[in-house]
Amino acid sequence: MASTLSKHDINGDWASSAPNLKKNLSLLSSEQIELPKMLLEMGQSHLFEHWPEPGVDDDEKRAFFDQVAKLNASYPGGLASYIRTARELLAESKEGKNPFDGFTPSVPSGEVLTYGDENFVQFEEAGVREGRNAAFVLVAGGLGERLGYNGIKVALPSESTTGTCFLQLYIESILALQDASCRLAEGGCKRQIPLVIMTSDDTHARTMELLESNAYFGMVPTQVTLLKQEKVACLDDNDARLAVDSHNKYRIQTKPHGHGDVHSLLYSSGLLNKWRDAGLRWVLFFQDTNGLLFKAIPAALGVSATKQYHVNSLAVPRKAKEPIGGIARLTHSDGTFICRTMVINVEYNQLDPLLRATGYADGDVNSETGFSHFPGNINQLIIELGHYIEELTKTGGAIKEFVNPKYKDSTKTAFKSSTRLECMMQDYPKTLPSSARVGFTVMDTWLAYAPVKNNPEDAAKVPKGNPYHSATSGEMAIYRANSLILRKAGVKVDDPVNQVFNGQEVEVWSRIVWKPKWALTFSEVRSKVKGSCCISQKSTMVIKGRNIFLEDLSLDGALVIDSVDDAEVIVGDSVQNKGWILESVDYKDASVPEEVRIRGFRINKIEQLEKSFNESGKFCLKP
Ligand code: UTP
Fold first, then answer.
1. CA dist 275 → 71, 246, 396 (Å)
2. Mean pLDDT of 478-497
3. Which of ligand 1's atoms lies nearest the C-alpha of 287?
4. Which residues, including other chains, have CB under 8 Å from residue 10's CB and lie 6 or more apart?
5. Mean pLDDT across the chain
């Protein structure tokens, strides 16, 4: 039962700057009274300007204070601290201050890998060995406004040959790593690699439903934990006046705070200590729509383990000035002999001016490799658990925030629309001591990075040479990577043809897809390809079983092959049929399902050879 208000509270002199609030004070309990006091002290009296007499909309008014209480509780230091930080950051933004002013950039050290060479294979082996000591964290709370897809992004098919959605692909990849790693453990092991998914109000219920309606895609339900991030209050002006929601005048407008929330959520969940006590060593952070990521994970984890990195950022070669953050070492001297160094992602629009301001007259330029000295951050991080816990114990997981208001004009006095404070997961190393071992692992883009972020119309406008990052390019990247991997393993895969879908010109390779349990590493692929195999450009090949071997296969058409784990199947000879063909569909054609429309093609399954081996034993598929 709420306790009653004191005389001072009811009298409400402290609320005289907000007469409409003062009239409504009797609606509040004594626990709640501190909230409007704090709001008035922080210059937020406008929130009550439109409040009518007591008796009108009282439930809505109470709900307003419930919302304020929640916003206050979910931000470290409460709403007052949020408003104070916002004022500081908005003032700096108005001044045009580069957050890295005073720092000198230099090229950090890291590992640059070449797919399939001896070094790569060794790192992959080390990574698979470490796999059982890892926990995975998927940040999936984003709105996906740029993509504009009505569903949650992790439910989107990563490719349409099998229709496997991103979440299924991720879970099956983690399970394949778990199996492969446990098989290497002395005496075997039964460890289940934990998966945390950070959701938000926009994605939580649908993520849960996707998992439950698909039996967690093979994971044990207790293996998966969902942590929901809360939104933060929007700001209307440089004084950090909180924005009133345009749909409900008794609510403060809120927006996501960014994926940086993942660190404080993990910290407060208690999971990190549990993982450490269970003997885990690594936490791997990844994002919602990168269908290639797990091709890079084993080697990158191997790099972390071998080099004992506290933080390892996955990166790709980046052209100078390309609009993707660069990983740089930043050094700052405070005028004494004390230097502070950090290895951190620097946004491309900050990197070039920073270089120019610190003696590099040409700014960010390509090296003799044809790429910038500063590799492109793809925001997949591997953090060493013990060091992570030590750091979060100091910071509580708080990540340095930033604000990015869109100003109406050059006076920078008014915003086009409300803004809010944001924080990014990759800013974690900002607070680390200079002694922390922060490195990176560069892999080829074709192997590691093809996110689905842009809707077809925006993707079609991307300047030539820059990646589309659309559902079309994300799917084509999977076929290309699998084709190139098979080529490297000795299969003759035809060259791609160029086609235009949804206004985007893409390379169309043979549609080759395999389950992660067939092969997670290059060595595994190599061990499953024998003799002289060839695959034509028009072909589709889907491998679903674990022990399927390609031997002298000549494929010109569609082949779908499945088997139980203890069956061994050799697929050889010539497979020829009319196959599956890609047919263009119009993005604007509302009769076509959204998942299909946004990639601009559908697959017409004309003819295929489809075979399942459901019993243990050795088999040979020769049509
Ligand atoms: P994106 O940059 O893709 O942002 O996030 P977004 O919010 O999903 O999409 P836009 O900008 O509205 O188009 C990168 C990753 O971070 C997650 C996303 O789900 C994605 O995996 N994310 C982003 C969160 O988990 N929480 C956030 O508040 C923002």
1. 29, 43, 17
2. 98
3. 21
4. 25, 26
5. 94
SS3 341: strand
DSSP 489: T
Burial of 59 (0-12, 13-18, 19+ CB in 10 A): exposed
Q: Compute, in angstroms, the gap from residue 432 CA to the centroid of ligand 1.
A: 24
Q: Which two tokens stand for residue 158?
A: 């990563």
Q: Which residue has the tokens 């933080």?
A: 311
Find the 506 Cα to ligand 1 centroid distance in Å: 25
- Using CA atoms, how far apart are residues 76 and 91, in angstroms rounded to an integer? 21
State the pLDDT confidence band at 28, using cuts at 50, 70 and 90. confident
Contact 622, 572 (CB under 8 A): yes
Ligand 1 pocket residue status of 426, Cβ below 6 Å: no
pLDDT tens track for 9-23: 666 788 888 999 999
Q: Pick the atom of ligand 1 nearest to 147's CA.
A: 13
How would DSSP label each residue in 80-98?
Answer: HHHHHHHHHHHHHHHHT--
CA of 421 to the centre of ligand 1 (A): 15
The candidate with the shortest Cα–Cα distance to 495, out of 477, 510, 511, is: 510
CB of 105 sitting under 6 A from ligand 1: no
CA of 226 to the centre of ligand 1 (A): 16
Q: How far is CA 224 from CA 221, 260, 270, 533, in A?
A: 6, 20, 15, 40
Say yes or no: CB of residue 325 within 6 Å of ligand 1.
no
Domains for the chain: give ranges and CATH numbers. Answer: 7-74 (no CATH), 93-453 (3.90.550.10), 488-621 (2.160.10.30)
Ligand 1 centroid to residue 61 C-alpha, Å: 32
Alpha-carbon span 226 to 138, nearest angstrom: 10
Measure the CA–CA gap between 44 and 31, rounded to whole angstroms: 19
Q: What would the mean pLDDT of 540-568 be, rounded to a whole number?
A: 97
d(CA 582, CA 586) in angstroms, rounded, equals 13
Mean pLDDT within 100-125: 94
Amino acid at 33: I
Q: Alpha-carbon distance 551 to 535, whole Å?
A: 12
> Is 131's C-beta closer than 6 angstroms to any atom of ligand 1?
no
Of 520, 514, 518, the C-alpha closest to 535 is: 514
- Rounded average pLDDT over 284-300: 98
Tell me if residue 173 falls in helix, strand or coil.
Answer: helix
CB 560 within 8 A of CB 610: yes
Q: Whose CA is nearest to atom 4 of ligand 1?
A: 142
Average pLDDT over residues 474-503: 98
Full strand arrangement of the beta sheet holding 511-514: 511-514, 540-543, 558-563, 609-613
Closest CA to 508 of 484, 537, 536: 537
The pLDDT value recorded for residue 1 is 43
Cα–Cα distance, 249 to 48 (Å, whole number): 9
Alpha carbon distance 586, 151 (integer Å): 19
Q: Which atom of ligand 1 is nearest to the CA of 139?
A: 25
CA 59 to chain centre: 39
Q: Is residue 191 very low, low, confident or very high in pLDDT (cuts 50, 70, 90)? A: very high
Phi, psi for 364 (deg, rounded to 5): -80, 110
In the reported structure, the alpha carbon of residue 140 is separated from the centroid of ligand 1 by a whole-number distance in angstroms of 7
